[in-house]
From TrEMBL:
Quaternary state and interactors: Homodimer.
Gene name in the database record: rlmH
Reaction equation(s) it catalyzes: pseudouridine(1915) in 23S rRNA + S-adenosyl-L-methionine = N(3)-methylpseudouridine(1915) in 23S rRNA + S-adenosyl-L-homocysteine + H(+)
Originating organism: Agrilutibacter niabensis
Enzyme class label: transferase
UniProt protein name: Ribosomal RNA large subunit methyltransferase H
Location(s) in or outside the cell: Cytoplasm
């Protein structure tokens, strides 16, 4: 099983890219994780934010691997503890399909992306910068994989 993180936004700050890269490397033998950056829609004075979100959504959907289980990160989704995420990861592994995790733009995901998603995952009630969500997601996937492998990384 492989995973993709499909994220709206380009050129992460160095500290995010380095942190993400560290967890990506650690995950490589348990759950290879690739990052696909999606160009943000045009926003600003005189621009329609809803149109920008629609454009982003179309690009996100086009980047999805065929037959993947799709998990959209969304504030209205379900929250999971690290142990519950490990259980979800084990469930997804049992399905034998690749995974795609989706991070939307400033206004979130388009309705089409939410409709396509098999699950919605919320990291909690806090509003987090989307670049930081990349790093948190990679760390939590590593933690879940480590739990499943009985690796000492997770000490609850």
């Amino acid at each position: 099983m492989k995973a993709k993180l499909i994220a709206v936004g380009e050129r992460a700050p160095r500290w995010v890219a380095e942190g993400f890269g560290e967890y990506q490397k650690r995950l490589s033998h348990w759950l290879p994780l690739d990052l696909v950056e999606i160009e943000p829609g045009l926003r600003g004075k005189g621009r329609d934010a809803a149109r920008a979100t629609q454009d982003e959504g179309a690009r996100v959907l086009a980047a999805l691997p065929k037959q993947a289980t799709v998990v959209a990160l969304d504030g209205r989704g379900r929250t999971w503890s690290s142990e519950q995420l490990a259980q979800r990861l084990e469930h997804w592994r049992g399905q034998g399909r690749d995974l795609a995790f989706l991070i939307g733009g400033p206004e979130g995901h388009s309705p089409e992306v939410i409709t396509r998603a098999d699950e919605q995952w919320s990291l909690g009630p806090l509003t987090l910068p989307h670049m930081l969500v990349r790093l948190v997601l990679a760390e939590q996937l590593y933690r879940a994989a480590a739990l499943l492998a009985n690796h000492p990384y997770h000490r609850a």
